[in-house]
Write a structure and sequence with these properties.
This protein has twelve helices and four strands; from the N terminus they run H-H-H-H-E-H-H-H-H-H-E-E-H-E-H-H. It is mainly alpha-helical. It is elongated.
């Protein structure tokens, strides 16, 4: 009986495990990532509902969103996921120098991602595309409210210039530009008030908005320079008094060639712009990408702490945990890139 009890007691060789067979650090990280998955699932789900349910949504080039920069950042993050795996493998082999080198490269790639994102943000800010309270500079439609906002901004710019005792040639040029735009605002608003429900009245206001901030989607199907254009059979009466539109090709801070309006040729103007659906786009874009950028920054801080350690086999678990977080951040961007840049 004693032999039977001994055999039974050592039959399976199992040991009692009071918890999950995971290190505490990895268990905590998986619990944390589960909450992060729910957080980003809510953000991305809300973006999808708003994006495909909105009556109007701007094209990517209307808001200076360039696909090449998004693709570059995607490639950068994919490469950074590879380098953090190589760092883990080097640490498991107790090759601390190689592990630290791979972690440093991952840190550099993450910094490149944030640098490109900051460059993209700069392109939006330079064109006054940002969420702001009580409202941004973006107007959803070209109407009398938009014209009033442009007129108010022109008056704000002109007031200090006209009171100068001595005006420089640059001051005179600025006053001339302000007066030129003010005349167009008056003509557009007059036509709109006289014919608020007619295409002619709305056309004048749209032309004003287009001269201030030309949208790429409006001109992308226009005939090329030198291409034959048929004259319309009848020109509306309001169009007969329309001032001449002078739009030239320019290179924006985002790197995309587009037609340059008054705000591009005279950056000091900072006139209100008209982008249908622009405010909703700006709110969702900066919210989603901003939270993702914060997570990237947290990852870079974690890598900075790793660089202060000896990344031998004893630190392999720490590298693995930080790497799991970094893979999650990369995966989120894999979902964001096509949603933000490719669904035009």
């Amino acid at each position: 009986m004693s032999d039977h009890a001994t055999t039974h007691g050592h039959h399976s060789g199992l040991q009692y495990q009071p918890a999950l067979p995971l290190p505490n650090g990895k268990l905590f990280l998986w619990l944390f990532l589960s909450t992060e998955i729910m957080f980003f699932a809510g953000l991305i789900g809300a973006y999808i509902v708003l994006r495909f349910g909105a009556p109007q949504w701007p094209r990517t080039h209307d808001v200076h969103l360039v696909e090449i920069w998004g693709a570059l950042n995607t490639a950068v993050l994919i490469c950074s996921s590879i380098t953090v795996v190589l760092a883990l493998e080097a640490a498991k082999q107790d090759n601390a120098a190689a592990a630290k080198g791979w972690v440093l490269l991952t840190f550099v790639l993450g910094s490149v991602f944030l640098g490109v994102k900051g460059y993209e943000y700069g392109a939006k800010f330079s064109h006054q595309i940002y969420p702001a309270l009580p409202r941004s500079a973006i107007y959803e439609s070209a109407d009398v409210h938009y014209a009033s906002a442009v007129r108010l901004r022109l008056a704000e710019l002109k007031a200090p210039l006209v009171t100068l005792p001595q005006k420089t040639p640059d001051d005179e040029r600025r006053i001339a530009v302000i007066d030129e735009i003010a005349a167009k605002v008056d003509a557009a608003e007059k036509a709109f008030r006289e014919h608020p429900d007619s295409p002619a009245g709305r056309r004048m206001m749209l032309q004003l908005a287009d001269e201030i901030y030309p949208r790429a989607s409006v001109h992308e199907h226009a005939p090329a320079v030198g291409e034959h254009q048929e004259e319309p059979a009848a020109r509306p009466a309001a169009a007969a008094v329309r001032p001449q539109v002078t739009l030239v090709a320019a290179e924006s801070p985002a790197g995309d060639a587009h037609l340059a309006g008054y705000n591009d040729r005279y950056p000091w103007l900072e006139l209100p712009i008209m982008i249908p659906g622009g405010n909703l786009w700006a709110s969702t874009y900066f919210l989603v990408t901003g939270f993702h950028a914060i997570h990237v920054l947290v990852g870079l801080i974690a890598f900075a702490f790793l660089l202060r350690m000896r990344l031998g086999v004893a630190r392999a678990g720490v590298i693995e945990n930080v790497g799991l977080y970094w893979h999650f951040v990369d995966l989120v961007w894999i979902f964001l890139f096509p949603l933000l840049y490719l669904f035009d």
